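Bit of a strange request maybe. I'm writing a small parser for structure token strings and I need a real example to test against, not something I typed by hand. Could someone generate the tokens for this chain?
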Amino acid sequence: MIDIYNTTFEVSLRILIIMNTTKRKLTIERITALDFIATYGKDFGVSEHNLHGDNKFRFSEYASKRRIIAQSIKELVLKGYIKANYNKNGFNYSISSSGASFCNSFNDDYAKEYKRIVEEANNLFYNYSDRKLVNCINQHGVSIFGGKKQ
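Reply from user aminoacidic:
Good idea to test on real output. This should exercise your parser:
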């Protein structure tokens, strides 16, 4: 049996949903953060449940998530599903018309729920800088495991 979970294929589909839902240019940091928040939406108040279940190691996933998202983005750029944009602050990414068309073909319950949660997360954290958003995730993780928020 081939395992598709946490592969670049699975992550690429979620990235396309994020890009198609937010309709704006995003950095790898923001894509990673929105994916994490959408996956564990209950922890951030944007969903009634965590799409990938409740596990005590979920916040340790965040550190490794950026690497697989970066690889997935490279593949999506090469396929023409997203566009890389460069500015003085570095790279950001936007969905292409072919990426949006492909994404619009997703019609299963998981994709619909993930999109709904991404919309909630994007609305809640829209005005956060990337740094503030990552800091929020880190502080939330610490507080869940008995630490103190700063």
